[in-house]
């Protein structure tokens, strides 16, 4: 699954970029061609979104403090934004790839993201953030490795494996979108994919013949780091590997207290790293399972992801029933307690020394408190919508961050309420006014019947069980406009999101990077956009690439410390 790095950026561009950032931190370049391909993960051909013709996309695999440059070429028939989920974008919400910060990349255009993965480490993923495209794929892992001088709190694993799990529909994302726009629920998914592939035929009644399934080949006795991400739409999944312990070590960029689990619930948007030791006798292959949680098992058993863990010395195929899921489909206590058992290891160093023990929680002065409450979908202005605190968010056609940059008034309102509104829900572009260097307490109340995981861009993830609440404290130290959303894709699509706007009142260029040179313009700023010459934006491979590569090789030879 190694991603070939294409050195397709002209040299002038590289030199320019080096001028803007710390030359000590290396640049890594990626070219992403985002296009439809036909795949049949559940046995039925359908259009899925691929990156460089791969579904799922290749992992981005970089090191703390690298400057990451991704030239995204939109070969879809609709606009696109790529979001780097969990990447903090310090001082640069410009690169976050959501509608509050970026204009969508029009069909046939390309746009180059550039950001530094400053002080970060761990397992994340990327995905297309608009138009319900994540339901069609377009996602891949995003790994940030430790720098050599930073120790990790476990022995270096013998291998590194990314596993993307998620619920899946045979209907394509445009059809699913139509259902949602028409006020319909999506209904039960058709399956759960593991790395873009359907289930192994463990049962001939439940799984049709001829489905291509994921096989992960391992060596006996070795220990692998397995990074598991739920990239699906709305289904919480229980992840397990037959006869193998999952030693949890990291979640979304923080090391955890190390604990063994036989299975773990992974909610939409969550990422976990496990160390898995291949300590079995390989009398057969073993099942890798991702099964839907909190649902009627007899109805949902065909909606189960099944892959194969294959030892090189395996003596036969996996057979028999799948390893058992937790037997508590209508009781969330076990799952909740399991989630509570996951704790940060505050003594383990992260990307920088002791980042996890930096705050003394008792002495924090909370500057603002927000109670954010959802409900099951409601009807607003005749449309079926999802809400947060009684507001169903509407994305203005001009991104908030751009509107601020150009001092445009009336694009959005800075009036998001501290407490849920009473009365009927409304559709608004309502944004939270965050106090720079303040501490915001957020209490998420899940009044829906489904699980929700909330994500604040540039910050972290928070899981909220139905009928329960979760309180968090956010240090508002990152200037920018940050998306706060449910990861549940249908609820997000229908408006269960807002933004937190953090502005430094002092006029300085130190707390936020300037608007990028290549910023796209849209909405009220459309007149600033020059058309893109799409005929020249198609060079993949071919002569120019090898020319640039040759030049780079020469440059590397001349200046050994430069990128080489
Ligand atoms: C989605 O499927 C519908 C048919 O159900 C088809 O008309 C449409 O072109 C497809 N769209 C994409 C993007 O594949
Ligand atoms: C589009 O890609 C070309 C190279 O293929 C690159 O030179 C150009 O800077 C890219 N445009 C943007 C806006 O990133
Ligand atoms: C936490 O990390 C430290 C430092 O690497 C390590 O020595 C310790 O064993 C870890 N503790 C747990 C409970 O995982
Ligand atoms: C990521 O890169 C590291 C360091 O080069 C390598 O050890 C690891 O196997 C890579 N992981 C994946 C999933 O490609
Ligand atoms: C396959 O699944 C069906 C439906 O749950 C079940 O009745 C049957 O016993 C299973 N077959 C085997 C071989 O386990
Ligand atoms: C996890 O389980 C393995 C056996 O598979 C055991 O050797 C190890 O000590 C356990 N680790 C913890 C932290 O419980
Ligand atoms: C391997 O392990 C399985 C399950 O633990 C056991 O049933 C089987 O007898 C073992 N086979 C050998 C050859 O040891
Ligand atoms: C689960 O679904 C089956 C099949 O439709 C149904 O018979 C059963 O009553 C359901 N169980 C519960 C607890 O709702
Ligand atoms: C909180 O406020 C008190 C009183 O104004 C002040 O003494 C203290 O330093 C503040 N704490 C922090 C962490 O800023
Ligand atoms: C936003 O908050 C700041 C203080 O952090 C305050 O000065 C400003 O008036 C607020 N703006 C609005 C529109 O409420
Ligand atoms: C949602 O709120 C209503 C009214 O307060 C309450 O009756 C209901 O139990 C709540 N449902 C959940 C799932 O929290
Ligand atoms: C910030 O940078 C811009 C462009 O480089 C410059 O015009 C402006 O004067 C700077 N502002 C401050 C406060 O330094």
How do the helices and strands line up, and which of them pair or pack?
Blueprint: H1 11-20, E1 27-39, E2 46-51, E3 60-63, E4 67-74, E5 82-85, E6 110-116, E7 122-128, E8 140-145, E9 159-168, H2 173-181, E10 191-194, E11 215-218, E12 223-230, E13 237-241, E14 246-251, E15 254-261, E16 263-266, E17 271-277, E18 286-292, H3 297-300, E19 304-311, H4 333-341, E20 368-373, E21 378-380, E22 383-385, E23 391-393, H5 400-405, E24 426-428, E25 432-435, E26 439-445, E27 452-456, E28 461-464, E29 469-475, E30 480-486, H6 489-493, E31 497-503, H7 542-558
Parallel strand pairs: 1-4, 3-8, 9-12, 11-19, 20-26, 23-24, 25-31
Antiparallel strand pairs: 1-2, 4-6, 5-7, 7-8, 9-10, 12-17, 13-16, 13-18, 14-15, 14-17, 18-19, 21-22, 26-29, 27-28, 27-30, 30-31
Bound molecules: 2-acetamido-2-deoxy-beta-D-glucopyranose (12 copies).
One 2-acetamido-2-deoxy-beta-D-glucopyranose binds next to strand 15.
Transmembrane segments: 545-563
Protein name: Monocopper oxidase-like protein SKU5
Keywords: Glycoprotein, Membrane, Signal, Transmembrane, Transmembrane helix
Give an overview of the whole structure.
Strands 10-9-12-17-14-15 form a 6-stranded mixed sheet, with no helix packed on it. It has a 5-stranded mixed sheet with strand order 11-19-18-13-16. Strands 25-31-30-27-28 form a 5-stranded mixed sheet. It starts with 10 loop residues before the first helix and ends in a 6-residue tail after the last helix. The protein folds into 3 domains: 165 residues, Immunoglobulin-like (Sandwich), CATH 2.60.40; 182 residues, Immunoglobulin-like, CATH 2.60.40.420; 138 residues, Cupredoxins -  blue copper proteins (Immunoglobulin-like). The radius of gyration is 23 Å and the shape is globular. 11% of the residues lie in helices and 33% in strands. β14 and β15 form a beta hairpin. It is mostly beta strands. Bound molecules: 2-acetamido-2-deoxy-beta-D-glucopyranose (12 copies).
